Amino acid sequence: MQEGIDELLDRALAGDKTAENKLFSNLNARFLSITQHRICNPQKDGDEITRDAEDIVQETLEILYRNFKQVKFSAGFLQYAFGILRNKIGDYFRKKEREEVMKRPIEAGELVNGEQPEDIIDADELRELIIKVLTKTNFESQRIIYALMEGYSAGGMIGILGKIPRGTLDNKIYRIRKELKKLLLKERYYE
């Protein structure tokens, strides 16, 4: 099957649209099967898993389609494609984990510094405050914070934001978080 993928890739890179469609159709079927298996959860219904898997595969194929003509595949096209899929699946689990943490009620023993439950803002309120403060930042900062809020890792954001070296993106995230904290402090939303 690898030879078929390589042949389709060569023809697609040469401009053959039929080969390109077959290549991405083949990848879609493969990735969907793998993703459904990886994110399978007995506590979810099959439709939800299918929808989540389709979203992950769609994001993966979008990145592949945008980049496959420019990237030089030192380890091979499939390895590159599976690497993107693996990162997207990781992003999915990190996002789900954050959602679960945000849904979990705060236990009385978790309150610190004499805070009262009414002093603690919930996730939706914090999100609204961050969005309000973000209007005071530049467009690039807004895109990065929104991506972080949606659960993307730095690696996952590279596909969304374009060709930014990972170190540069990490520096931008650090500076943006620092700027966001400063703005929230100024607005007295952060302690």
Structural class: mainly alpha
Give me the Rg, rounded.
21 Å
Q: How is the biggest beta sheet arranged?
A: none
Unreliable runs, pLDDT <50, ≥5 residues?
108-115
Shape: globular
Roughly how much helix do the residues carry, as a percent range? over 70%
Number of DSSP helical runs? 8
Q: End-to-end distance, in Å?
A: 56 Å
CATH class label of the largest domain:
Mainly Alpha
For the record, the CATH architecture of the largest domain stands as Orthogonal Bundle
Fourth-level CATH superfamily of the largest domain: RNA polymerase sigma factor, region 2, helix turn helix motif
* Number of structural domains: 2
CATH topology of the largest domain: Rna Polymerase Sigma Factor, Chain: A
- How many distinct beta strands? 0
Quaternary state, please?
Answer: single chain
Element order: H for helix, E for strand: HHHHHHHH
Instruction: Look at the structure and give the mean pLDDT.
Output: 79
Beta-strand residue percentage = under 5%
